[in-house]
Write a structure and sequence with these properties.
This protein is mostly helical and 65 residues long. The chain has helices spanning 6-30, 35-59. Helix 1 packs antiparallel against helix 2 (35-59). It is elongated.
């Protein structure tokens, strides 16, 4: 993978976001995760969402017509 290609980086970030979502859902469904652990994962997921948004905006800038 070329770390300089923003589209590849974006796909990696999206995959990590999906993995965290699945992990959080599984912990909540099974009742295995502590509230602190789940909160930490949710915070990481939110941070990834922000990174995805910023990178996506750089790749496809808003076009004012």
């Amino acid at each position: 993978m070329n770390d300089d290609d923003p589209r590849q980086v974006l796909e990696v970030l999206k995959a990590e976001h999906r993995r965290l979502d699945e992990q959080i859902s599984a912990l909540q469904a099974e009742g295995l995760g502590s509230q602190m652990e789940i909160a930490r994962l949710k915070k990481r997921k939110l941070h990834l969402k922000d990174e995805i948004k910023l990178l996506g905006d750089r790749i496809v800038p808003d076009i004012i017509a």
